[in-house]
Each structure stands twice: as C-alpha cells, then as structure tokens.
Amino acid sequence: MLQTNLKHVETAAQYRELIASNEKVAIVCGRMGPMCIPVYGVMEALSPKYPDVAFYDMEFDSQVGRETIRSLPETRNFNGLPFTVYFRNGKVVAATSSIQTKGQVKEILDRHLATEASASAAL
Fold first, then answer.
1. Residues of the chain with pLDDT > 70: what percent?
2. Hey, which of 2, 23, 92, 120 has its CA 20 to 30 A from 56?
3. pLDDT at residue 1, rounded to an integer
4. Which domains does the chain have, with CATH numbers?
5. What global pTM score does this model have?
6. Which pLDDT band, with edges at 50, 70 and 90, does 121 fall under?
C-alpha cells in the first residue's frame, strides 16, 4: 500500500465500484518515488477544494494497477510515472504521465471535473 493520505484502490472490484459509483474520480497510479510523491501531495492539497471529486491512489506494480489503469488505451504509450487518470461518469476524460504541478492538475480538474462552484473555490 502506498504511504499517502489519499484513499487507496487495492482490488479490481474496488476500482470498478469506484468508477461506477462516483461521477468524478482522479486516480494516481505510481510508486513511492521522486516523480510520484509530489503528485500525491498535489492531489492531497487539492482534494478539499474539489469535494465532489474522489481522489485515490493505486500501486503501479500491483496486479490491480496492471489490470486497470495500466491497461487503459489512454495510458498505453505512457513512459513516465505516475499515471494519473481522470474519470467522469465512468469515462476517461484526461490522462497524464510523469510529474505534474499543482497548476497543471488544477487546470485538468477545472476543465474536466469541476463545477463552477468548486473551480471558484480552488482559486
């Protein structure tokens, strides 16, 4: 299990339930390494500002990581860690790889997942 303050996705069944039961989801799939830790921190910092988004992490090297995030068509050509995938209504609306700044993550959240109220609160 990753040592973050995010909620963790540990099984494929949990992943499917998460995507099916939440309109907006952001999952960071990575390791406890130098490219991933800053992204976990960004997600932890932004999560209170986007209460309608379910923020989770997932271990990159786990079976669930291989079966889910790493097997998505949107991540097929990714090389850098972490893989961050944003879902809305069960569909992938954005996916990034490698380190992301708070501004980059906020831009994706505002464009694809935020309501006007949460985008204004995040300013």
1. 93
2. 120
3. 87
4. 7-114 (3.40.30.10)
5. 0.92
6. low
Q: How many residues belong to the chain?
A: 123
Note the pLDDT tens digit of each residue in 27-53.
999 999 999 999 999 999 999 999 999
CB 98 within 8 A of CB 84: no
- Torsion-angle region of 52 (φ positive above 0: left; ψ -120 to 50: alpha; else: beta): alpha
Task: Give me the residues paired with residue 27 across strands.
Answer: 56, 85
Question: What are the helix (H) ranges across the chain?
Answer: 12-21, 37-46, 63-67, 102-108, 116-121
Longest Cα–Cα distance in the chain: 38
Q: Residue 94 to residues 26, 109, 123: CA-CA distances in angstroms?
A: 9, 9, 21
The residue to which tokens 């130098």 are assigned: 34
Coil, strand or helix at 112: helix
pLDDT of residue 122: 53
Q: How many CA atoms lie within 13 A of 11 on its CB side?
A: 3
Query: Can you say whether residue 89 is alpha, beta or left, with left for phi > 0 and alpha for psi between -120 and 50 degrees?
Result: left
